[in-house]
């Protein structure tokens, strides 16, 4: 019971702070006016700014749990730095796959090499500078691929980016795990 009393008094204190620092003008606290001039009273189910407490769900009043500790530990995790050798090997696999995949599409015609070159350059830059293992594969490089292909007037930017991200989702994290397992084992 003492915990509940303490919690209630804490929320009462917080509510009183809210009341004293509320940016809402005093004329707007009890009612508000629509632009048409119609005046509405504040709903009784919504706590007034002048009330000394807020209604708090019992689920919010539970004590600190172990799941919060797990979240804290996850937030403190530091991802490894990119591995240049891995980035080089993965870029080669990526380029080979994308060239093979996009060569089958009529949309690219003679510009397939240029489209693959743009996508490979962006992917390589990402792997060398930002990718640090599972959990760090971002979508931004693939958006950049589609945008850059389109900006250069080349065909099929969205399709190339879609093929690139599909391959990356299926291979990059698995290849990283194999690469790092070989280094430690």
Please explain how this structure is put together.
By secondary structure, the chain is mainly alpha-helical. The protein has two domains: 2-71, no CATH class; 84-184, no CATH class. It has helices at residues 2-21, 26-29, 66-75, 84-103, 112-129, 140-151, 157-184; strands spanning 31-33, 39-41. It is elongated. The protein starts with a helix and ends with a helix. The relative contact order is 0.09.
Q: What labels would you give this structure?
A:
elongated; 2 strands; 185 residues; 7 helices; two-stranded antiparallel ribbon; mainly alpha
Q: Tally of extended strands?
A: 2
H/E element sequence = HHEEHHHHH
Ends apart, CA distance between termini: 55 Å
Q: Structural class of the helices, strands and pairings?
A: mainly alpha
Radius of gyration: 28 Å
Major beta sheet, strand line-up? 1-2
Total helix count?
Answer: 7
Instruction: Give the proportion of residues in helices.
Output: 55-70%
Unreliable stretches (pLDDT < 50, length at least 5) are 1-57
Sum this structure up briefly:
This protein has helices spanning 2-21, 26-29, 66-75, 84-103, 112-129, 140-151, 157-184, and strands at residues 31-33, 39-41. It is mainly α.
Indicate the topology.
Blueprint: H1 2-21, H2 26-29, E1 31-33, E2 39-41, H3 66-75, H4 84-103, H5 112-129, H6 140-151, H7 157-184
Antiparallel strand pairs: 1-2
